Amino acid sequence: MVVITTKKPVDEVLNVLKENNVKKIFIVSCGVCAALCQTGGEDGLNEWKEILEKEGFEIVNGLVVDDVCDNREMAKVLRKNSEDIEKIDAFVTLSCGLGVQSIVETTSKKYPSMKVFVTNNTEFMGMTERIGRFYMRCLGCGDCLLNETGGICPITTCAKALMNGPCGGMVDGKCEVGNYERDCGWVLIYNRLKAIDRLDLFSKLRDARDWSESGHQREVVFR
Amino acid sequence: MGEKKIYSKLGEVIAKGDFVLTGELEPEKTCDLSHTIQEAKEMAPYVVAANVTDSPLGIVTINSMAVSHIIQKETGLECVWQLTVRDVNKLGIAGMIMGGHALGLRNILSLTGDHPNMGDMPESKPVFDLDSATLIKLVREMVDKGSINGHEIEHPPTLHVGGAANPNADPMEAEILKIGRKAEAGAEFIQTQVVYDIDRTIEFLKGIQKYKVPVMLGIFPMKSYGMAKGFDMFVPGVDVPKDILAKWKSVKTDITDKKEQKNVYDQLNYEFFKPFISELKSKNLLAGVHCMAVHYTRIFPKLVEVIGA
Ligand code: SF4
Ligand code: SF4
After folding, report:
1. How many other CB atoms are there within 10 angstroms of residue B239's CB atom?
2. Residue A154 CB–ligand 2 contact under 6 Å
3. I need a surface site. Which of A13, A124, B31, B182 has the fewest CB within 10 A?
4. Within a domain: B1
5. Going by C-beta distance under 8 Å and a sequence separation of 6 or more, which residues neighbour residue A79?
């Protein structure tokens, strides 16, 4: 699993830094998911160093960190680099939204006025076909249906996340959304269930999804 | 609808087993309903009820619940309120169902609705909290049990609910099994997508016969060659047969007198739909016909005769 990110337009990032009066920067670049998506890693770090320096920002430090999204890892990085952190106005983060928030959460106690910015848009949890081809196949809905749908997720492969598809928008196995170029998720489910001789599962009337646990802040706490 | 309670004229006619003809009204992006009211008045003597569409193709129009109410009030024509799950969540829809009842609406056609992405507000959030089957189930709980999620409704709504089917769907088996789910959810009638292919239609109707839900077949009499061509080009998944297109085209090119042209178009429609419908009727596959020919109300007086409604 990879959290898929894409690059924000450079100007958008530069504008937000200028608007926030940022001059001295610490860059944190994700060495895992963002590196794979070519939005972070060593290359991303060098690219942003160059861009920011050219625009007159001072890069106090720049690091590739393996688990930006892991509070423990970030806390360690921050401890080791406290001298540099004292000097900066902001972090610029080449990661997903989790990485950014991990930095906010780990710095905000010691440096309440520290600003943290992000260069990427976070797209989805992705399945990798190859580098540069990632697909959303799970939304983390909290109540996985794959055992009932032949291993194909209706939440992500159906444009309407229907529980009882296909809808009237299906034409020759394709979905109305996206100009009939993508497969209709419910036809994929039908084909799979037919292949494994479980059309009984396809015929089942499914209740609407229960949002009572997942329609708001979520956390997993078991210790 | 068997021994069940009857809440509407449509419910009554279906229960009696009389052949039903329903029409369709497509209100637009406007607050002035005079055209829609006019069409409703024109079709009222010939149809049992008329569907009122709910922002078809995801293109936003005036709200179908409001229009259904106004049409019923202004013209006396009973409406089938098309309700999609596209833009309102379960909580909102439950409220609307009570509101619809209070406004005098007695028939709902449950639809998924076209994705906002297809229409003129693509930035709008797609909701789809329910789907077309679970909406049917919700209506039936509210009506039959007088509750929502097990919570009692002080004065429950009384209305009928039906669903849609697409005989053109491929794979057909998936569509048939889906109708089974709608039947299980409690659909009291089915209205189909427009069909032209008789063999496919027979195969499909036979496939869903076991669910014992009365079916109204969707037809689209074509007012002109332009209409026929437009329908063929722009309605996904339904092809107007080539020979029909050719016939309609020849009317346009060969007949110059406009009045005569109209007559011939009408005639061609009767000639096509008469044997089509009577074959399905003779096989006991139909409860009625749902005619979606919008802005073509002059077809109704004769259409009623032709299909024997
Ligand atoms: S049903 Fe789909 S979105 Fe939900 S957990 Fe399973 S794969 Fe993920
Ligand atoms: S066509 Fe298929 S994938 Fe697309 S919205 Fe309908 S059921 Fe979902």
Report:
1. 14
2. no
3. B31
4. no
5. none
- Preferred mutation among A149, A177, A205 to probe B, highest tally of B CBs within 10 A: A205
Q: For residue B289, is it within any domain?
A: yes
pLDDT per position as a tens digit, A22-74: 999 999 999 999 999 999 999 999 999 999 999 999 999 999 999 999 999 99
**What is each CA distance from B171 to A175, B175, B178, B187, B191, in whole angstroms?**
13, 7, 11, 22, 19
What pLDDT shows up at residue B237? 86
**Contact criterion met (CB below 8 Å) for A208 and B149:** no
Question: Could you give the domains of chain A?
Answer: 2-124 (3.40.50.2300), 142-203 (no CATH)
Across chain B, the runs of DSSP E, i.e. the strands, are 20-25, 49-52, 79-84, 107-111, 147-148, 151-152, 160-165, 190-194, 215-219, 288-291
User: Which residue in chain B has the smallest CA separation from A155?
Assistant: B128
Q: Is the peptide bond before B221 cis (omega within 30 degrees of 0)?
A: no
pLDDT digits (tens, 9 = 90+) for B166-193: 999 999 999 999 999 999 999 999 999 9
Taking residues B25-39, report their average pLDDT.
98
Say yes or no: CB of residue A94 within 6 Å of ligand 1. no
User: Residue B257: helix, strand or coil by DSSP?
Assistant: coil
The residue written with tokens 């439950």 in the block is B94
How many Cβ atoms sit within 10 Å of the Cβ of residue B5? 11
| CATH assignment at residue B244 | 3.20.20.220
Measured N-to-C along each axis, helices B242-254 and B225-234 cross at an angle, to the nearest 10 degrees, of 150
Partners of B36 in beta bridges: none
What domain range is B298 assigned to? 9-307
CB of residue A2 inside a 6 A radius of ligand 1: no
The total domain count for chain B is 1
The reported pLDDT for the residue numbered B2 is 44
User: Does the structure's ipTM exceed the value 0.90?
Assistant: yes
B97 located within any domain: yes
Interface contact flag, A205 B133, Cβ < 8 Å:
yes
Put simply, the answer to whether B185 touches A211 (Cβ < 8 Å) is no
